[in-house]
Amino acid sequence: MSTEVTDAPSTPRQRVRIQTGEREDLGAREPANGTAPALAGAGQAKPAARETIFDVRDISVSYGASTAIAGVSLKVPRHLITALIGPSGCGKSTFLRCLNRMNDTVPGFGLTGQILYHGNDLYAPRVDPVEVRRRIGMVFQRPNPLPKSIYDNVAWAPRNLGMKANLDERVERALRGAALWEEVKDRLKQSAFGLSGGQQQRLCIARAIAIEPDVLLLDEPASALDPIATASIEELMLNLKHRFTIVIVTHNMQQAARIADRTAFFSLEVSAGKRTGALVEYDETSTIFTRPKDPRTGDYVTGRFG
User: Fold this and answer.
1) What pLDDT does 306 receive?
2) Which of 78, 208, 213, 224 has its CA 20 to 30 Å from the CA of residue 242?
3) pLDDT in tens, 68-90
């Protein structure tokens, strides 16, 4: 499937064409020492090589004179869950927000290096960040439903983007995709604030997928939820990865071990009295949790620090 990232308004107007491949329609759908969480599917054969969605090349991010992360390079494969783990303040959320240019409005934000999305530089001067965010959706740490009905929460973005044809069907598909339809189908016109915390977070996911993005970014989406709601969100992510590429920030080691296919461990480096976030290790989740190459990774996933 061919998609486009539209350049910022100019004369003449230009577009950057991106090949994203076909995607299915939306639908419902401890290391050996025993101190790290157990892994689902550990020991299975390595999957075949997948298309690269993000190719991050030596990026550094600063806010004014303060460097948040430095020298990060990694590739995010298609239709897998990639988890970002590490201690507080190491730049995980900063990195995540760079993937759809959510940091652009932060005062003093600066980025060097490249983030290629399907081979196109997301930070090229003429790329429209609004279009980037349409293709790369985001769900935040705490549920943030709009002060509207359940239906209008899901329909809000499609309406604003001119996707008004078959809106009822689009809303239902998104709610089914977020495993919420059966719970809300008889009260679509009621306020979204009447939903539980877990339901509100699934509503936010439905709102994100209603415009059919290519990628979902999730910033600790279950940190404010109880264990039952957390399990529902995790099951949902495992279903959605067959339709979307997912990148998630989590402080929950067990959660990363349960759901992530690949894991990136970030930590803090201290130089000249300044603390800077850095990528320490990035590999298959089973490797990160059972056979890490860097001793700092092993110390973190086994709870020796962090």
Assistant:
1) 64
2) 224
3) 999 999 999 999 999 999 999 99
